[in-house]
Amino acid sequence: MHKNNAIQEEILSDIATLYQYLDHQNKATNTLYENMESESITELLIPVFKEIPDNTETRFACVDRIVGLKEGSFLNILQKLGIDEQKSLELRIMLLEITRDFHMKKHTKLLEYIHKNSLLSPFLRNLLDSIHKIGIAFNAFFFAWNQKLILGINKDLNTHFKGDYNAILKVLESSIECCEKDFSSKGGFSTQGELSDRSYSVPVLKDSVYQAVAYAEFFQEEFEAINQAFNHALESLENSTEICATLEQKDAHIAYLKTLQNALMQKQSSLLLESWRLVDKAWMQISTPLQIGHPLEYYEDHFRKAVAPEWDLRIARIYNGADLLESGINTDSKLSKELILEFYTQYSKKFNNTPFKDSIDSCVEDALKQTQSYGGMPLLFYGAELNGLFSAQVVPNDEKVSAKYGKKIFYFPDRVRELSMAKPFMLLSSKTFPKEFLDFNRELLYFREQDWYNVYEISTVGHEFGHILWVDLDSELQMNANGQFKNIEEFKATMGGLAYYFTRENKPLLKELIFNTISRAVGLIAWMQEDEVLPYYCEGLIHLQVLFDSGVLYYKGSFDAVALEIVLNSTTLHTLEQNYLQIYDKLINVYLNKRDAKEFLEDYAKKDSKGNYKPKDSKICAFVEDYYAQYQEIGQVQDIMTPKIWQETYKKENNAPNY
Question: Of 2, 150, 240, 360, whose CB count within 10 A is highest?
Answer without folding.
Answer: 360
